[in-house]
Design goal:
Diaminopimelate Epimerase, Chain A, domain 1; 264 residues; 22% helix; single chain; alpha+beta; 2 domains; 6 helices
């Protein structure tokens, strides 16, 4: 069996930037174990698969070790493939996912995700909770929030976020995804994202994390339109908006690779 494969750098306007995602358009679903094996072989933070369903596409995302319920950069990459490689008509693609209905609109070169808000527990978590994980981030934050499976740490400035050197084996044992964030020097906020228990020590640019970051910073800054930067080694730029119980996350994308997979 031969399957198409695209590798797209999402939240980037040139290759070797942003977050690379693999995209595999399918005529029909493969067995879950085959999709997981393809994602492991690709060894990118996410591989997206989609199948057409009526006037929409059902989309699924796999890290090298597990399926995840929501992924922003691989959705952006999938929309780029639908628009530019598969000739999707109009300026919107509709998607069905484990996190509900999603869509991506194109505005010139900008692709804008319409995703759900994923709120925090608004009570500050005590610093003693998840203490080992907080220590493993590398520097004490000024605020800690969270929800099940997520630690959200706020720092005083961008330089502190850039300087963090997490202890990834400790974070992996804590089985937590970690968002670290701070006010930006020339954008509204910056962030980094760590998920070693999901096979991703540091994700270059994480659209789904902004489902939580955008409402937090919108409330803190008193504005609903924001500019963001994920300050990983590759880096990425995001144009963000809070729209009721949805977030709009805009970015550009560029294809790095087009080819085929051959599987038994």
């Amino acid at each position: 069996m031969r399957l198409p494969l695209h590798q797209v750098d999402a939240f980037a306007s040139e290759i070797f930037r942003g977050n690379p995602a693999a995209v595999c358009p399918l005529e029909a679903w493969l067995p879950d174990e085959t999709m997981q094996a393809i994602a492991m072989e690709n060894n990118l933070s996410e591989t997206a698969f989609f199948v057409r369903e009526g006037d929409a596409h059902r989309i699924r995302w796999f890290t090298p070790v597990s399926e995840v319920p929501l992924c922003g950069h691989a959705t952006l990459a999938s929309a780029w493939v639908l628009f530019h490689a598969l000739g999707a008509p109009g300026d919107e693609v509709r998607l069905v996912s484990k996190s509900g209905p999603l869509s991506v609109r194109r505005r010139g070169e900008l692709l804008v995700l319409d995703f759900p808000v994923l709120p925090l527990d608004r009570c500050s978590a005590p610093f003693g909770a998840n203490g080992a994980a907080i220590d493993a981030i590398g520097s004490p934050p000024v605020e800690v929030h969270g929800r099940e499976g997520l630690l959200f740490a706020v720092y005083g400035d961008e330089a502190q976020v850039r300087a963090l050197t997490p202890d990834f084996p400790v974070l992996a044992r804590a089985d937590l995804r970690v968002i670290v964030t701070a006010p930006g020097s020339d954008v509204d906020f910056v962030s980094r994202f760590f998920a070693p228990s999901e096979g991703i020590d540091e994700d270059p640019v994480t659209g789904s994390a902004h489902c939580t970051l955008i409402p937090y910073w919108a409330e803190r800054l008193g504005k609903t339109t924001l500019r963001a930067r994920q300050v990983s080694r590759r880096g990425g730029e995001l144009e963000c908006a809070l729209v009721g119980d949805r977030v709009h996350i805009g970015g550009r994308a560029v294809r790095y690779l087009e080819g085929t997979i051959t599987i038994p």
